[in-house]
Amino acid sequence: MISKKIKLGKNVEIHPLAYIEDNVTIGDNTKIGPFCIVRKGAVIGMNCKFTAYCEIRENVIIGNNTSFGSRCTISANAKIGSNVSIKYSFVLTDTPNLKEGGNKEVGFIADNTLIGASVTLMPGFNIGKNCIIGACSQVRNNVPDNEIWYGSPAKFFKANK
Fold first, then answer.
1. Taking a C-beta distance cutoff of 8 angstroms, is the pair 122, 138 a contact?
2. In this structure, are strands 95-96 and 104-105 parallel, antiparallel, or unpaired?
């Protein structure tokens, strides 16, 4: 099902088995694969690609030229920069802020970052610009710009020059 209340750019391809909710914006030349779900209020940039079985939850913002392998889940209110490559089975998790009336804590991924397969970004942590996160890593700390991390929990490996 594709809502009639969405804003589509030019040359957007949405697979007939995708599900797109109301108030979604999808930029030019973006491709949404089969069984992908894009929840209300999401904003997806230009030239993005979603392979299959991805879920983009409410109010997620994704920059331009960002690609997702299959089975990626992005929690509500997350932000992902431009020129990001995320391999399959990535999960950006969230958790309720335990303070009364608090919002959920979610992470942020900055521009020009590569995320390997089967990576989990824990709630409230961010990944900086020009980073690489190795496959099967669990990110439990903020990753500064220009660094390579891997492991479970992920740890600094070396600078990304």
1. yes
2. antiparallel
- The two tokens of residue 103 are 């919002």
Tell me the pLDDT band of 69, cut-offs 50, 70 and 90: very high
Q: Give mean pLDDT, residues 62-91.
A: 96
Q: What is the pLDDT of residue 81?
A: 97
Burial of 83-105, coded b for 16+ CB within 10 Å and e otherwise, reads bbbbbbbbbbbbeeeeeeeeeeb
- Mean pLDDT over each residue of the chain, to the nearest integer: 93
Are 119 and 137 in contact by the 8 Å Cβ rule? The answer is yes
Closest C-alpha among 35, 36, 6, 33 to residue 21: 6
Domains along the sequence of the chain with CATH: 7-159 (2.160.10.10)
Which two three-digit tokens encode residue 46? 């230009």
Report helix, strand and coil shares of the chain as percent, to nearest 5.
0, 35, 65
